[in-house]
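ok so I'm stuck.
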Amino acid sequence: MQRPPGKRNFGGNPEPPIDEAAARRLRKLARFALGWCFFILLRLFHLQILSHNEYVRLAQNQQEKVMEVHAPRGSILDRNDEALAMSTTLKSVVANPQHMPDLPLTAEVLARVLNLDEKELLERLRAYASSGKGFMWIKHRISTEEAERVAMLKLSGVEFRDETVRTYPKGMLAAHILGGVDSEERGNGGIELGLQEELEGIPGTVRMMKDVTNRGYESIVESKPQPGKDITLTIDERIQYVAERELRKAMGTCRCKTGSVVVMNPRNGDILAMTSYPTFDPNEAPSNRDDMAARLNLAIAAPFEPGSVFKVVTLSAALETTRLGPESPINCMGGVMNLYGRVIHDSHAGLGVIPMREVLSHSSNIGAIQIGMQVGVKNLYDYITRFGFGKRVGIPLPAESPGQVFEPRKWGKTSIGSVPMGHEITVTTLQLAQACSAVANNGLLVKPRIVLRRQRPGDPVEIEPVAPALRVISALNAAKMRDMMHGVVLPGGTGTRAQIPGYTVAGKTGSAQVYDFQAKTYTHKYNASFMGMAPMSDPRIVVAVTMNGSPDWGGTVAAPVFREVAAVALRILDVPKDRIDDVQIAKGLPAVTASEDDNDAASAPLSPIPEGAEADAAAAPVAAAQLQMASFPGDGPRVPNLLGKTMRDVLNETVPAGIAVDARGSGLARAQNPPPGALLRPGEHVVVEFRR
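replied:
not stuck anymore, here's the structure
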């Protein structure tokens, strides 16, 4: 095809004819090139605009590495700032097999210095090198000497990393309170687990720039690690040590399986000591099932039938809801009682009509039942819950048990004969200490606390608040209960071995028979316990002791533990003595003169989960008006007039007459109780207040 004639080029010469096929190909090529350019523009738009952030992230992953910086774990201290748990930084050895020119030589040297298996180390290095991995742990947390020797070698591809290890410098001391940590330094028991989030802190991050050979050349700290909070406990390590020592000694003597002790300040709820037996060393990982069982904090996690210590709750409820008082006559029926076909025996026969205070001091089961029947099921249940039983105390320790308190609708027909003396109910040692503290604190129940304060380094101190106290019984009735509990430790009571030279003591023994769930009967082993306070005039400490599976009674095995622990605690706390006359405290502590306690072994065994109709509180009322009071003989000593005399003159006059005096204050005698001329009952003290 030729060009149409008449067309000329720029030189005036005619243009050659155009090949139409070539023109079409040229136009197609132009359109393709234009489309290709448009596609490239679209792709660039997608890469640079739409997917910019994604490709920046991918590039950063290749060029940068974000590393987490471990936050130091907070320390755990006692109330005097003695370290109980702390984290120590140690060196760990890491390697990059890609940068090791001679793997066999490196493996040989490292194995000798770090006491490793050379063959196994070489195999691991070769495996990492062949897989292209550039990071490998050689040995965690090496000693300072090992770190110095590795550093001197200056091996290519070998570096150090800082790691922390949790240590417990006091060994087994307070092990059940502290708990422990796992291999990743996370809490697995005790405070370590209960306050894990506060102790572990907040990790920081560091961004590391890498070159083409994967070696870092620059680092940027993106966020600094925030150390964990230091936790200060209410525990006093000195009292804790004594509590653990005395419990361990007693467990060996009485051949008990388990036991626990709680020491508490009744005014603010501070737990000064809490220990369980058997114990463990938190520095060592458990190796078998027995080691795991030993880590259970029995003081809060192992409820048991309390036995006669629970009579304190029964009598407190009686003071609040009935007309009964410390001197009210209670018919103990000669030591035998038939309750709806169930025959109940006191462990000591022959008790007739005695004052309510002697029901407590002699630990009469039948007397407690008679009192409980006057209180009634509803009122008794109400005061059991008021004293804190049946619910968790709420301290930050894992596995706390609420115990077991059945609602009245679940009580059996004879439950009114079991609950008042501490059966068909389970409690923990900490709950006993809390209940005893209510009596010691003028009827106010304080919530126990084990954390005193918290502080993250550089931040203000966070003081743990004291929970508001709840009124359980009146201050007057609390004073009456302390006076009756004081009779328990006097001659004739079941807790004479709890007496402390120089201090007045109030307490209660307990010996609940252990129930065999397989045989469905009570055994001849006891949950032997004692809870008490000192000094009685102004209680500063409460101590609750429990020894499970004891062949002896609480007054025999648990009361001496109370005595030793409380005596040292009072001295450590610098509590002034309130008892000048120690004539009543023999140099060799008196043996228990009253047979103990709440053991109704001869009665028909009860199911621990009662069934049947609700017991009627009025089914067997005690007609107090018809009872004849068992009065004491009238030939006891008369109280002399001690007013205006010095302490020496008072002692010179009372000691020869065999009169025990509780002296308070200093100076001249300004008040006394009982008044001059009153007949002194057996075991009763004369309280004399001295003022300057």
